[in-house]
Predict the structure.
Amino acid sequence: MDNLNPCQLVTPNDVNTSYETAIRENPDNRNTATGSRRKRAVARHTKFWTPGRLLRIRFLNGSSSFKEATKAALANWTPHVNLNVQYIEEGEAEIRISSEPGAYWSMIGTDALTIDDQTEATLNLSPDQDLSIKFFMAQATHEFGHMLGAEHEHLHPEMTIPWDKEAVYQHFDATSDLERSRIDLTYFNLLDASEVNHSPYDPKSIMHYAIRQNWTKGDFQIYLNPVLSEKDKAFMTTAYPHPEA
């Protein structure tokens, strides 16, 4: 399972709206940089939900098997977060799930609140559960990590991947500057340690892409991580703590 398609990156339409929404939802999302540096890095704020809050989820479409598999994927995370998840059939929902084939993507955390249209999805999972449940569960669990505010682990500022960038460009037939910039955004543009709260780099994280050996220099490879790592669990427990007894 090292050939999963990367999830499609979804960025907010306006970084200032994203920032304001995130800190309104959870003040701990506030960027800790100051002055002009903070202005340049406003998109680097965290996007975690308020611990303990009710998170309503509604399916916009999808078969019963799709819905059950999707719920099972989210259940991988729920024991490790202080959030109350409620699936609803109608009414307003913070998370709205669609099942358009061929794509996996999610708004990151509180960016879902920037989408006012209740008929518009905030997360999409391709309905592959009947073709390969293992494939679907790995992809869906990854996307729910984004829904909870997690970023891609291979963009961690402490990552140690010896990339052969030209090999990656060639794999995706990226010849133009625009195509290469998209690859850079997906694989190479690291998050800034001074502007993003993060746990130590975890090559076993479910939020890490599989890295092919021929994309790197030397004998380096990372296989797909289909289940949560122990650091994934610890990270979310820290992001969504339960009240102290």
The chain has seven helices and five strands.
